[in-house]
Write a structure and sequence with these properties.
Largest sheet: 7 strands, antiparallel
Strand order of the largest sheet: 21-20-28-29-30-27-22
Strand content: 35-45%
Oligomer: single chain
Structural class: mainly beta
Number of helices: 3
Helix content: under 10%
């Protein structure tokens, strides 16, 4: 009889491994290969009309050959199936509305022998929730260590708190945290905002539908249903409580600071190694280092004495050189995570544009001073035609506002700027 010998955890990150093992006890001497067709159900969400999530279900069949194991005179057939690479096509960056989305619901449905009996084995398996990336070292079966925070963020702690600028929080819209449910009974969310001392923030927490292992802290961005913007606070607190065990309680703080007053500020957002959105505010100088691709030539017309060639219009690769500004060690860890991400965006002229970012990041192991790095940023969406610069200072609707000579000609200064009568 075939049964499930090993299955993933009920709440699983793909990079931590998603593996099933089916097992069957056989008699010694029965060594023939017995492949199985193993069927799985995969449920996932896509963004539908106006960003409303739509739930989809696919089923996949995997042909699997067994390996054999003998222990204490007992022979076993074992079928191993690893699914993390397949599920990568279905998971996406976490996003939240009424609930949290971006995960995959996985369930083993059945197995079928590939032989003359064609026996279909019904297997009872629970639903597994699989998320992009890794848990970052958090063991969902144990209490949280005092020196490990539960947030799905790649940046480290600065003097006991994670640090964000206000524009970074607003660009992310949510902060996600994973919670070992078997250890903690209550989850609270609060801020140091004294203007609203009786404000209940717990209703701003969002979960996966029917699950509580993942929570999203919702601080609104132009949300009319929210009483006020949590990003106006200076500190955000997540409190995990255990009934009757105060020594196991955990309180985690996020420090929020006004954006620095600098000549330039640039926001880069990416999908971090835990599948959550994260943002860095960079304050260094940015330069345009765009490259013009050399046009390709081809033969247009050829005779016995002459060859006429033409060229295909080249592509202008829009590239920038950007200095990060001085970063602390905790923010450098986020920078490194961003450089490894496959989904990076930069806010350019109020639009999030997909980009590729490269840099050589070297810093001291025990960093004592902030470091500045130079990034090379390339816009991924390119075109063969550049958008012309049509910015002008429009003239007044009436000529009466312009300075004219006796013949009615408009007078210009040496720079060809129109001179107006009022100045």
């Amino acid at each position: 009889m075939i049964n499930i010998y090993h299955s993933p955890k009920q709440f699983q990150f793909l990079e931590d491994g998603v593996k099933y093992t089916l097992r069957e006890f056989v008699k010694l001497g029965q060594g023939e290969a017995m492949p199985l067709v193993i069927q799985f159900s995969i449920g996932y969400h896509t963004r539908g009309y106006r960003g409303i999530p739509t739930y989809n279900v696919n089923s996949i069949d995997i042909l699997c050959y067994p390996k054999f194991k003998v222990a204490r005179g007992v022979k076993q057939r074992l079928w191993d199936v690893e699914l993390d690479s397949i599920l990568n096509a279905y998971v996406q960056r976490l996003f939240a509305t009424t609930y949290i989305y971006g995960y995959v619901k996985l369930q083993l449905i059945s197995a079928k022998r590939v032989d003359e009996t064609a026996e279909k084995i019904e297997l009872e398996d629970e639903v597994h929730y699989c998320l992009y990336g890794t848990s970052g070292g958090i063991d969902m079966d144990n209490e949280l260590s005092k020196d490990i925070h539960p947030f799905l963020l790649s940046r480290g702690s600065e003097t006991g708190a994670l640090h964000f600028f206000r524009s970074e929080l607003k660009a992310m819209e949510h902060i996600y945290a994973i919670i070992p449910l078997d250890w903690y009974d209550y989850v609270y969310f609060d801020t140091d905002e004294k203007e609203y001392p009786d404000q209940a923030f717990d209703d701003r927490l969002i979960f996966i539908e029917g699950r509580g292992e993942l929570v999203a802290i919702h601080y609104s961005k132009d949300d009319s249903e929210t009483q006020y913007d949590v990003t106006g606070a200076n500190s955000i607190f997540l409190h995990l409580r255990v009934d009757g065990e105060p020594t196991q309680d955990r309180i985690y703080a996020i420090a929020v600071e006004d954006d620095p007053d600098t000549d330039e500020t640039h926001l880069i957002r990416w999908t971090n190694s835990m599948g959550a959105p994260e943002t860095l505010l960079l304050t260094g100088e940015m330069k345009d280092i765009s490259e013009i691709e050399k046009p390709e030539l081809y033969i247009h017309e050829q005779t016995d004495v002459r060859v006429t060639r033409k060229q295909i219009r080249g592509i202008s690769k829009t590239k920038y050189s950007l200095h990060t500004g001085y970063l602390t060690s905790s923010r450098i860890s986020a920078l490194r995570d961003m450089l490894l991400s496959e989904e990076v965006e930069m806010l350019i002229e109020d639009q999030w544009v997909p980009v590729s970012v490269a840099s050589d990041v070297a810093n001291a192991i025990h960093q004592s001073t902030p470091e500045d790095y130079e990034l090379t940023i390339e816009i991924l969406e390119q075109t063969r035609y550049r958008q012309p610069n049509r910015t002008i200072n429009p003239l007044p609707a009436s000529r009466n506002m312009l300075l004219q000579d006796n013949s009615g000609n408009i007078i210009l200064d040496n720079n060809s700027n129109t001179i107006q009568e009022n100045g």
